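Can't attach files on this board, so I'm pasting raw text. These are the components:
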Amino acid sequence: MLINDNRQRVLETLLDGEFHSGAHLAECLGLSRTAVNNHIQALEALGLEIYSVKGKGYRLAEPVTLLDADVLSSGLASKVHLFDEVDSTNSFLLNNLGDLASGDCCLAERQTQGRGRRGREWVSPYAGSLYLSMYWRLDGGIAQAGGLSLVVGVLLVEALESLGIAGVSVKWPNDLYYGESKLAGILVEMRGQYGEPAHMVIGCGINVNLGQGAASQIDRDWTDLHQIHGAPVDRNLLAREVIGHLQKGLQQFELQGLAPFLERWRQRDRYLGKPVRVLLADSEVTGVAAGVDASGALLLETDSGLQAFNSGEVSLRPS
Ligand code: ATP
Ligand code: BTN
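---
Top answer:
Structure tokens for the assembled complex are below.
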């Protein structure tokens, strides 16, 4: 646990979403009023939204349920590493590959260096999202890993659907959208030599209740499950559902490859049949999105015929 014990106790008192006066917090926790005030400021700096009302005290903008290691790991054969704060859940697994088995996970309440594709930042406020990474070993090596980020996209949408959250779509190759707004991102990282097993780290960031503080840090339209669902979403339940879907789906991917996922992708493909631009390193190609091929490459119907693009350095945009 990285946030200090007294700060944790202040937070735990506020978790019920009710008002607690500074005097009450100080007395219950055996702290000075100044110390309470400092802890409140520190919690706000972590990304928690706290209302402060004269005469009433402090209250979390929304009641928050923290991730619970016992709930997450109950009935699971895999290991779950849960942190209050970590640089990046993907980095934690990448740094501990030697100790992992397929299906082991890392989750955190907050990431200090959450990462997106190509070194971009993933905004990761405290308790506002699910930051979840899973390790998977592919004995077939790097050649077996093609299309994995698409598989994960399908599995995340299916996990949300099983919780009654419908209408989420996939954007090739690694995003989940709701309407025009980004809901979640996937970062698949790989270690291994040709001819040897591939060590895959699959990172998922799903916005749950990001809060206003995060809004100013994200340079695009984004959304979260709270807005979509219109009610609080239990992150422990969500995490269990995501872990279950990933473990089952990755076993299927290992045995059968991308084929069983192609139709499931097509049904949720955000741009299928729509005009799009594909951004390359120093040019762009326009056309109509025509889904993906059997290897997971993006297909684009252009004036000069059907073209395929691999994910690497390519970005897809509406035209
Ligand atoms: P691509 O280049 O793959 O089309 P992209 O522009 O979405 O995709 P990514 O690297 O996939 O880029 O995602 C990182 C981007 O996502 C960041 O640059 C930022 O704009 C946005 N972002 C960061 N944090 C969040 C978040 N919590 N929710 C939604 N969007 C975020
Ligand atoms: C993207 O859209 O570019 C991918 C974002 C992936 C974010 C998740 S959060 C959990 C895991 N840890 C990270 O540092 N990144 C991924």
